[in-house]
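Risk mitigation, structural track. In case the binding assays with magnesium ion fail to produce interpretable data, a predicted complex structure has been prepared as a fallback.
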Amino acid sequence: MRRTVGRSDGRTVRKSRRSTEHTSDQPTVRPSHRPTALAALPIEFVGSFPDPLIPLAPPLPEVALIGRSNVGKSSLLNALTGRPGLARVSGTPGKTTLLNAFRLPDFYLVDLPGYGFARAGKTARAGYRRLVERYLLERAKLAGVVWLLDVRHGPSRDDRAMQDLLARSGRPVLVALTKADKLTRSAQASRPRELAVALGLQEDQIQLTSSTSRLGLAELADSIVVAVGGTA
Ligand SMILES: Nc1nc2c(ncn2[C@@H]2O[C@H](COP(=O)(O)OP(=O)(O)OP(=O)(O)O)[C@@H](O)[C@H]2O)c(=O)[nH]1
Ligand SMILES: [Mg+2]
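Fallback model:
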């Protein structure tokens, strides 16, 4: 996770491929279902905060999860860490309205509120925008962002606005395509490329995942570990 989502910057990113190394006659990168590097680590909920610049103690690198409401952020956090009840998964979109921080030994995972919730009022939307913008633009310890997109849908207007904000922030970004289990095998093979083209990104900046089937979670966890300075 070393590249931003801006289309013209020269920083490089490479998603982790530890379990997906391929031979020349097998060019497809196939995500695995092995346990994630994060599942073995202790993790604790630090708190929910309305202030995007809240100092966390001790100061450690942070990786944030961002995506539209209901895209599967909390589910992904739970699946990545192997803790089903850690972040609240809801059938009602727009439940996560604060910044939720989780401490691992050497870094924090931060679950940000989802954007694009149609029923949120104007004031709530403005508050949300302020929180997320300030977090992404000004947060001193933000080492990388996992940007979630539902693999079944093309980027919405809100997703495009988020891509602009992420590009402006200059933060390293890895795209996690969620809910891959809802696609057929052949669509699972073709969608990442289609979405990479739609977003103007390299395919190696995009990770196909499913919190339900656990597809791609180990690779995503490795990328997070690398983004915060560890080795995967
Ligand atoms: N089939 C399938 N459903 C999923 C997956 N991930 C999440 N969901 C479902 O999608 C819905 C929303 O999941 P959440 O994890 O709460 O989404 P969120 O992005 O945290 O939502 P907000 O906090 O409201 O922004 C829930 O009904 C989940 O069970 C997945 O990988 N596969
Ligand atoms: Mg949530």
